[in-house]
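Backbones bend. To wit:
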Amino acid sequence: MVVQPVLNLAGRLLSEQVLAILATPQFPGMKTVLANDQSILFAFPGQGSQYVGMGSDLHDKYAIARDVYRQASETLGYDIAKLCFEDPEDKLNLTRYTQPALLTHSYACLQVFRDLTGDRLQPVIAAGHSLGEYSALVAAHVLAFESALKLVQQRGELMGTYGEGEMSAFPMDLDTIRPLAQRHHCAIAGCNLPQQTVIGGRGDDLEKVENEVLETFERKRPVRLKTEGAFHTYYMVKAAQKYRKVLQSAEFSPSSVKVLSNFTGGLHGTDPADIKASLFFQLFHPVMWFANLQQAFENGIDMIFEFGGGIGPGSGPESKRPNLQGMIVKAQRSIGKKAGYQSVINCDSLGKAVDLVAG
């Protein structure tokens, strides 16, 4: 029988004709995306973007998402779908469970998107905020999904076991907040934007910094974050020392996709030893997210896709908004650059992203 091969060939030719039509000047918004002329950044959020029900809509609708969750459950040794969708034992916000859950959701979003678009779009750069750096390494094929899951499972367990303290975000620049933080034995944990800095320390020390800021600076209201510890500060040194041995046994592969390093603010090199060292230092050094975005724009990024997580009120995936979008928009204004943006965090945003690519 030759009917099916002929039909398949006809379908491919028709698809190519459709793409050619969409790439003409009458469809300027589609040309660069479909032809992959744009420099694309794949971005991934970190802790704080988890919620009960995360990924349940994708799991219900797409077989490839179910495969991702099944694969994750087999690797981790527990039912991560039940944890993410129902959280019956109230464990989702515990770091040892949060990190694999977010990685799995981000990867499921990415895999469904790739499947529905025929893996047509290839990023030039991948970036992740804190934990999201591991999702970025998976997206760039530097780490296998199973390897990354094992890493973040042990990373989260060590951070929850050996770490201490809390975190607060301040709408202030680094040079202003740093001396106040150090006065009370707190440390810089993240430089998200020129006017958004995160610090970490013990709860009573953080409270002193917060009160001093409220007394000294008008309308500079800090926000206490929901974390199990003062991540990316000296409070994580012991966890990092334990984690170093875990990193050494992980297998990293070379990739043509560049990946941004939270630790340096620049791009990872190609040497696995250097990547492992940066991930080690990332545990107890500030996340240089604004520097990451600056680096991405210096490399000509003009289209951004964000995968996974979700924030905001509401109990279902459809009610959530993307975690990184606000920071990305503010960073663009500060840097003076513009880029397209689309999230892939639930079925609704996934549909819009696929429509953007497929017309």
The chain has two domains: 30-163+233-358, 166-225. The two ends are 34 Å apart (CA to CA). Residues 260 and 267 are 4 Å apart (CA to CA). The longest strand covers residues 187-193.
